Amino acid sequence: MQAYFQNKLIEAGCDEAGRGCLAGPVVAAAVILPKRFKHPLLNDSKQMTEANRNTLRTIIEDKAMAWAVGFVWPTEIDEINILNASFLAMHRALDQLKTRPELLVIDGNRFKKYQDVPHECIIKGDSKFANIAAASVLAKTYRDEYMEAEHLKYPYYQWRNNKGYPTKAHRAAIMEHGSCELHRKSFRLLPLPPQGELFEND
Length: 202
Known about the structure:
disordered C terminus; 6 helices; Nucleotidyltransferase, domain 5
């Protein structure tokens, strides 16, 4: 993993978590790391254990030149769609940075321009550059923490385990209890029935 995309400008890495979930916010982080920052645990957050992510979160927050996290809520996702919500979450994180970046490196292949700051989109950037990986860790841990707290209000959805992703248990709970205020109503919460079942009661 490389420390940065380039060495001349103040560079912020950006990544999001929760795009594919049925419930909860999409969360993004922006991180400006010191140029020489390295840590043996740092990787794409999806490839790390929960314990290692939580360990790194503290280290990143302590060592980063600047970092911030942005949330976009389910009602907003339903209004503007998940792609635009992901961009908005990154913008909200960038709005909070105490140091203004001169270049943004974005995980993925699309981004909505932020103010007048140039950007580079990098496919699988969270496994290539430390600042994007650090952003992935913060986005993932902050979102997981939020969903674990909401699990206490809605334990039957088992968000402590699935974090709002479309697992069988989560969808079974939606089938039994219906959706709640944290579900994304613009998403298909339940799979379509197999062909032939639609008219079985006719």
